[in-house]
Amino acid sequence: MSFYVTTPIYYVNAAPHLGHAYTTIAADVMARHHRQRGEEVFFLTGTDEHGEPVADAAHALGIEPQELADKNAERFKALAPRLDASNDFFIRTTDPEHEAVVQQVLSKVRENGFVYEGTYEGWYCPRCADFKADNEIDEGNRCPIHHVELTREQEDNYFFKLSAFQQRLEDLYAEREDFVAPRTRYNEALSFIRSGLRDVPLSRHKLTWGVKVPWDEQHVFYVWFDALLNYYSALSYAPEPGAPASGATPASAAPGASLTERMWPASYHLIGKDILRFHAVYWPALLMAAGLELPEHVFVHGFLLMDGEKMSKSLGNVLDPFAVIDRYGADALRFYLLRDVPFGQDGSVSTAAFELRYESELANDLGNLASRTIAMVHRYRDGVAAAVTLDGELEGEFGGLAGEVQWLMDRAELTGALELIWQRVRRLNRYVEERAPWRLAKDEASAQQLDVVLSSLVAGIRVVAVLLHPYLPTSTDKLLGALGVEGRSLALARWEATDALGCKLGQLEPLFPKSQ
Length: 516
Ligand code: ME8
Description:
516 residues; alpha/beta; 6-stranded parallel beta sheet; 14% strand; elongated; binds ligand ME8
């Protein structure tokens, strides 16, 4: 089994913000979950360095695009580990290996008869690097996303014959209803297709900052075609996941097979709704034109909003993820974003909402549950949770939990899965209150009952901690470490006594200290 998940590659025209962190965190949760299943996982993120947004930003600063790209790519690269993202590779579209693959695949598209020369005229947003259809233009001839004035562009270009894929795309959507999710986004993409596909520019003549068109070096490829191909090109030159510098193949990998053979096509492309059309329409058409296999799923999440507007660098209303992580740690940010903003919908973010989730859920629900349980096992049982039969009353809620979480994860329902796990965290808190181990501890006749309660709590915490591991990697490592659980495999989320019962528990520092 292999699982290949991607984020969009981010423009390097400015520094990363919380919106970028969001998609990277979501992809990381999926990657970590699939690793827990024992699958071979490849998780890709990176930067989109060509095109007008980057060229314009560099010119405004009076520097060369490459210089800006180098500077900002470093900031995006630095963000990934700060988020605890376990990406296997970081692609930059200025990598020569990527550029070569773009030239090769798009030459193939031309050989296959889907490229011709023509003149394009239309309204263009330099921030989106995209031409706008008449029904996508806001009042004052402005971009509905960036609010900047659109420019009238006319130029001789090479075109991609998108219209040739009208029927095949309609068939794709009819045959694979889970190709794009959530359903509203599937419907939106399908209605765009049904409204009639027009050919789109494949190259730009006026720009020089891009991958050169090999059959006509006066042109560079339109940045979107260059960018989309990152998902494919990366596999041709990324090192083996988890490989030492020597590039040796991990034991789980099929011997001799390249990353492309093993990982292509992608299991999930995670994207924001701003780039739906490129991924749900252009991308499958481009792959069909090149004779390559299509991805399994495109999952489209919503926008993080601040003050009712999309958080975006061009609007200037951004939260700095580095600052949040400095203060609260990456786990808290990961949790907050996937808990508070239903994955797939828009949602507002604010410091006040973040602090509330931190205090009431991370510090109280989970942190206190863990620390008081471990403290009681130390106080009443000298640190050893007895290997006894677990409380049958909890079995119904914990027995099938891992399976339910897997089912949701297969559909990228990251907020739904987290909610399900959190219900069990709350259930364990109620269980502590109901069973009141401190009372049982006062009565020698209740000794056996106390063992069952404490061991069931320890087992329940183990189940939720294993399932929460993709969301909260650092704190669950501490917690599982204190419980004596080795490994992070999903098999450890079974509701049954494990070897860890009967061993001495460690000490646990507060997982989520109260903020100063
Ligand atoms: O579009 N809320 O790059 P980009 C949620 N280079 N997600 C957000 C967000 C917000 N407020 N702001 C940004 C590009 N994102 C192209 C992509 S892919 C082949 C090329 C996230 O820097 C979200 O994933 O504008 C969105 O799709 C992406 O960043 C856009 O990043």
